[in-house]
Amino acid sequence: MPIILAIETSSELASCALLNSAAGADAPVLTRESSGVRTHSQSVLPMVQELLREAGVRLADCDAIAFGAGPGSFTGVRTACGVAQGLAFGAQKPVLALVTLEAMAEACRARTGATEVLAVLDARMGEVYWAQYRWNGEWQAVRAPALCLPAAVAPEPVPGLAACGNGFAAYPDAFATQAFAAGAHADILPHARELAVLGVAALAAGRAVPADEAQPLYLRNKVAYTSAERQAINAAKADAR
Q1: HSE (CB half, 13 Å, CA atoms) of 17?
Q2: pTM of the predicted protein model
Q3: Does domain 101-181 have CATH number 3.30.420.40?
Q4: Strand runs (DSSP E) across 29-154, as ranges?
């Protein structure tokens, strides 16, 4: 009955979640969220502290720390990874690096019941991140996460395919003639709530890794932490001691 702390900052929405399976099957996933990418590095740790206080648990009580590994904002996924690593190092806990697009698929399934899902996330610079998933008791990637122009998104045509993600809102003209985009749930973004839910199965499947082995999923390249990222990582390590 694991306790999973999750952190997600890959888009304009930062979120944290705490799933306490030990509290019972009906126990809610506690969440906090904050908008505005410029404040992600400052908002994550206070949200984590609020969740732990509300749940009445310590960081040491958590069984794993999950984070949205990407794809997504380069700074965002590095911030989530760095904070998760810092907390995990201090508490001596394993880390779960989970795919943001799969979390979006889980959110779409929870909302609509869909078992065939196309997730499309705005990647800026005229491009999108996307992947296609099928639910069969667990999520299976039909099309692996990729970066491309909106017009190049090409899901496998399957009955009942549900589409989600802000990529549809960011590039409406590119998707206007695509049948798979009809009725897309464009408000769905990666959220720590779904990462916490997915983290239970990921932990049971042995996908947790030591903190120093956790890595973001990059579909673009960049080198160097920003000063804000370094501050967030150092703060997380100090807070976990």
Answers
A1: 26
A2: 0.89
A3: yes
A4: 30-35, 64-70, 95-99, 116-122, 128-135, 139-148
